[in-house]
Design goal:
The protein is globular. Helix content is 34%, strand content 19%. The protein has an 8-stranded mixed β-sheet, with helices on both faces. The protein is α/β, with parallel strands linked by helices. Strand 5, helix 3 and strand 6 form a beta-alpha-beta unit. Helix 2 packs across helix 3. It has one domain: Alpha/Beta hydrolase fold, catalytic domain (Rossmann fold, 3-Layer(aba) Sandwich).
Length: 263
């Protein structure tokens, strides 16, 4: 296990591969471990990091740090401590929200960001996720039965329920949609069509965002597309990471396998 101390508080992370950095940020259920298949794919060409956010996995349980702003600040401090410069971010749920806030604050540092099953408004989030009975209950609700899902079930009990609830306070206060409408960073939104917890944004609404933003809906996936359909997710991720810096992810829609039906 790799860890660093921030003011005597443990922050756990893992790293694979060599090359330009990409950081994986987990969601409301589980920890860094469910990113392993995606990290292994990225590590062929990149140095892939994954860390446990405050209140999750083996990182310290610190209720004062559970807001979205504090989770984004954790990413900032982690990068400074690790000497990471310009970076690609891959975030899921909670991690996606933190990645968007970080990209808004540090646009010169974030080369691109891939956000997975991310709610830009509180109305997109099911009540069961906003006020969970327990992290383990969420895991059983959101996960399929594939072997890749076992790391999420195993690490779900490590999560502090307060960390899940506190993260939604910012969404109650304000929508992240205005950030997306002015985002200069290349951003790929990926969503599992069968996600019961987070509703994906209408195709037309995404297309009204800047050319830097694109959405792909994976029709065979739920809340964990990186586990529900790992080969498809990893292929899409690799294609996005391989784009030249500054290229629009809307180029990806030219590939037949990434087209979604518009109803």
């Amino acid at each position: 296990m790799s860890a660093i101390l921030f003011d005597d508080k443990i922050v756990h992370y893992e790293v694979l591969g060599r090359g330009r950095p990409v950081i994986f940020l987990h969601g409301w259920v589980g920890s860094w471990r469910y990113w392993v298949p995606a990290m292994q794919t990225a590590a062929v060409s990149f140095r892939a990091y994954a860390l446990d956010l405050w209140g999750f996995g083996d990182t310290a349980k610190e209720p004062d740090f559970y807001s979205l702003e504090q989770q984004a600040a954790l990413l900032d401090r982690f990068m400074q401590e690790m000497g990471i410069g310009r970076v690609a971010l891959v975030g899921h749920g909670l991690g996606a929200l933190a990645a968007i806030l970080f990209a808004r604050k540090f646009p010169a540092i974030v080369d691109r960001v891939m956000v997975v099953n991310v709610p830009f408004e509180i109305k997109s989030v099911a009540a069961r996720l906003r006020n969970p009975a327990s992290p383990s209950d969420l895991a059983e609700w959101l996960l399929g039965k594939a072997p890749l899902t076992e790391p999420v079930r195993a690490d779900a009990p490590k999560s502090d329920p307060q960390a899940i609830v506190a993260s939604f306070n910012s969404l109650y206060a304000s929508s992240l949609m205005p950030i997306m409408d002015s985002l200069a960073t290349s951003c790929l939104i990926v969503h599992g069509q069968n996600d019961p917890a987070v509703q994906f944004t209408d195709y037309e609404r995404v297309m009204a965002m800047p050319e830097t933003v694109h959405q792909v809906v994976l029709e065979e996936s739920g809340h964990f597309p990186m586990l529900d359909d790992s080969p498809t997710f990893n292929r899409l991720m690799a294609d996005f990471l391989a784009l030249d810096s500054g290229d629009s992810p809307r180029q990806l829609q030219l590939k037949e396998e990434w087209k979604r039906r518009v109803r």
